Amino acid sequence: MTLLDRFEASAQKIFDVHLHGTENPSAQVLALQKAGVYKAAISTSWSLQNSYRDFSNINFLHGLMFPCANGKVPYSLQTCFTGEEWPSVSWVEQQIKKKRIDYFGEILNQYYGISPSDSLLFPYYTLALKYNLPVGIHTGGAGPDHGSPNFRMEMGNPLLLKPLLSRFPKLKVWIMHSGDQYYQETISIMQENELVYTDISVISNPDIVPAERFSTIMKAFLDAGLEDRIMFGTDNGDILKVLNAVESLDFLSNAQKRKLYYQNAERFFSKSEKH
Ligand SMILES: [Zn+2]
Description:
Keywords: Hydrolase, Lyase. The protein is α/β, with parallel strands linked by helices. The protein has one domain (42-273): Alpha-Beta Barrel (TIM Barrel). The chain contains 11 helices and 8 strands. A 5-stranded parallel β-sheet has the order 4-5-6-7-8. It is globular and about 45 Å long. The protein starts with a helix and ends in a 6-residue tail after the last helix. The structure holds zinc ion (ZN). Residues 106, 138, 176-177 line the site of zinc ion (ZN).
């Protein structure tokens, strides 16, 4: 039995909360669907974003990436939205009203060289609160060749969320990539703030992070009692490899896997779930 057969046979439901665009959305969508993905949160350049609005086999939630150094998406270097570094707040509100933005993220403050608690972001957090939208913030490090000249490693530390969380205590925030090398800081923030979630993208990708390290991080999250707030994400990694990494964690029960694969994300992204 191949890995794909195994996942098809188990009919595992997957909600991928961390996805970006590719040059071939149809092939990407097919591979995700085969692996059991029924819902995904996608953020990419605003023009590419639109090509994900017509798929019916996966329910896409649409994000908004910002701020964009030189108006570009990191790595792909496509134009983020209009070529500006920051989207205008009134335009963002219009898009929310037209139901074209379901969440803010990936927030690229680290690539832009500022803290997630920088006041430049406050007008957007205010908007997210007004419309009950989740906010996903990139944390940890970065791959090579991201093309963002002001990237600052230290701005990926989740402890920098503290001022933001005390100013916007009801905001639905998720720490993307579990903080990666700052995962202990992520745990401490999540223990102090019951509304903060996290996703396992990148740390679960064996092409980037060794399996033993992923296991160590996951064990730490579970030992800290956070199994209800960890969400599945691939960040465009090979989903079968990522699923295999999760399935290889022998300390995870089936109930915990279901929470990770979709139940936690369904609760977090629920429009009716108000904090
Ligand atoms: Zn990221």
